[in-house]
Amino acid sequence: MPTTDEAGGVAPAALLDAIVIGAGFSGLYQLHALRDRLGLSVLALEAAEGVGGTWYWNRYPGARCDSESYSYCFTFSDALVAEWEWSERYPGQAEVLRYLNFVADRLDLRRSICFGARVVSAEYDERANLWRVQGADGGQLSARFLITAVGCLSAANVPDIPGLDTFGGTWHHTGAWPHAGVVFAGKRVGLIGTGSTGIQAAPVIAETAAHLTVFQRTANYSVPARNGPLTPESRRHIRENWAAIRRTMRETTNGHPFRIADRSALEVGPEERDTLYEAAWARGGLQFRATFRDVLTDPAANETAASFIKRKIRAVVRSEATADILADIDHPYAAKRPPIDTDYFETFNRDNVSLVDLRATPVERITSAGIRTSAGDHPLDIIVFATGFDAMTGPLLRLGLRGRGGISLREAWVEGPRSYLGLGIPGFPNLFTITGPGSPSVLCNMPVPIEQHVEWIADCIANLRASGAERIEAKPEAAEQWMEEVGRAAKATLLPQASSSWYLGANVPGKPRAFMPYAGGMTRYRGVCDEVAGRGYEGFALAR
Question: 371 Cβ partners below 8 Å, 6+ apart?
Fold first, then answer.
């Protein structure tokens, strides 16, 4: 990592106006907004050797976006929209990474990014009103503002299973996949985890592995993606209706290019309801959950969707015993991240695939030869951990952030995250967190909340500079009230009823249990943020 003297052409002894940590969707846009719109001296620090963020690291088999491709992009620039064309309905990892490289080149962002720069600490210097940032290589930088663009799902969660260090084969986490790939041909593979990632990976691994054993702790719903190439007609429709599509994305609860139907699952008869679900199943994708407005708020309405999907699982999977395990789901539909898939349940009809129910036969340890459960040993050559991430808080905690008085973020969040709007943290002046805990973030089509946060932060910094203010900090009482609102919004839905959800931090042992994203919807959240800014950044303390 360069010193401040060397960074981005900054003159010797000069200070950076801002440091951005990360060069994925959020980091690239924040760099562009601050450098090119506001004319600030900015440097982005990226641990990887290229842009892409989560799409740089997550190269596992089957890695694919679950938002419609034409909506999973930046919308702030008509030129970027016009110059890029997606090939599929749901783009794979490689295509998303190509898109982000295209954006970085088109906006000439690389000259302001330091690659291979892993941040190990960032401390607020109260006397100088500066952030002092240190890299793993010992390099140091200073800046007035620090913006974290580290994503919500970037801190890989490898479960602490006894004996992992004795395994004689190889193991990999899907969130840190080898760039050279992994050869499964002729290998006995164990896949631990059946969330969105495991559901994507299993069918692809099964195609070449000698045998795939899927270890399932929590059964999950999944709806077919119905992925395929975008036809010329689809591309033309997107181009001709782009303004309306973008407007829909900005006006809807989750930032997707479709609206939730204004009807209850309970106000139609069983036959009509099943007809509507069948049409949504045939169409595929996340729009299935938009069939009725009350699927995520009314237990009885949710049960209609849950029962429909469980019937589909049993219709697809030929083994009744296997179908029973896959359909033994303990939470409401979409209370956890709702996966979409390509032939996931069909994979269990293959002769080279078996399923282990870890609730019935828990893992005891990993041996030199494979995985041992309470029922016996499973010989393996490769173990794949599709066990997710220390979501939302994990990427921030590992930065070594220290605020006023030297307090660490880990200390400040010992009982769970405390953030105002997911943007500012009490005790950490001039620090902005893009899509931090307390914002809609992971409940949305991510580029939409990213753009909203980036633009709010850029406008805030511009207003601070225009008014002569040198410091902004979230007030403790504002953060406390907002996190209470986050809790209220969650309780108005069925989301907290998934007790094993990473939305609650339940996938990480010892992590405080708190519902982290804001479930009140992107539209309402955007309005709150605009009101806060319009009232002179109410809830923040400003100082000259």
Answer: 190, 192, 213, 215, 363, 377, 378, 380, 383
SS3 (DSSP) at 421: coil
**Which 3 state secondary structure label does DSSP give 418?**
coil
Residue type, 172: H
* pTM summary value: 0.95
Structure-block tokens of residue 149: 């663009």
- Cβ atoms within 10 A of the Cβ of 123, count? 17
How many helices and strands in the chain, by DSSP H and E?
16, 20
Q: What is the pLDDT of residues 444-501, one digit of tens each?
A: 999 999 999 999 999 999 999 999 999 999 999 999 999 999 999 999 999 999 888 8
Instruction: Report the 10 Å Cβ neighbour count for 357.
Output: 19
Q: Whose CA is closest to 331, among 175, 503, 191? A: 503
User: Looking at residue 360, what is its pLDDT?
Assistant: 97
- Tell whether the torsion through CA atoms of 17, 22, 27 and 31 is positive or negative: positive
Radius of gyration of the chain (CA): 23
**Residue 30, helix vs strand vs coil:** helix
Q: Residue 502: pLDDT band by 50, 70, 90 thresholds?
A: confident
Distance CA 215, CA 217 (A): 7
Bridge pairing between strands 370-373 and 363-366: antiparallel
Instruction: Report which residue type is found at 144.
Output: R
Mean pLDDT of 336-360: 97
Mean pLDDT of 171-198: 96
Question: How many degrees, rounded to 5, is the angle at CA 28 between CA 22 and CA 29?
Answer: 125
Q: Determine the Cα–Cα distance for residues 497 and 108; give it in Å rounded to an integer.
A: 45
The answer to whether residues 215 and 190 touch, using CB atoms and an 8 Å cutoff, is yes
Q: At what angle do helices 447-467 and 25-32 cross, to 10 degrees?
A: 30
Burial grade of 125 (CB within 10 A; 0-12, 13-18, 19 or more): exposed
Percent of the chain clearing pLDDT 70 (strictly above):
97
pLDDT band at 13 (very low <50, low <70, confident <90, very high): very low
**Is residue 498 within 8 Å of residue 529, measured between CB atoms?**
no
3-state secondary structure of 408: strand
Return d(Cα 261, Cα 325) in angstroms, integer.
32
DSSP label at 36? I
**φ and ψ of 70, to 5 deg:** -70, -10
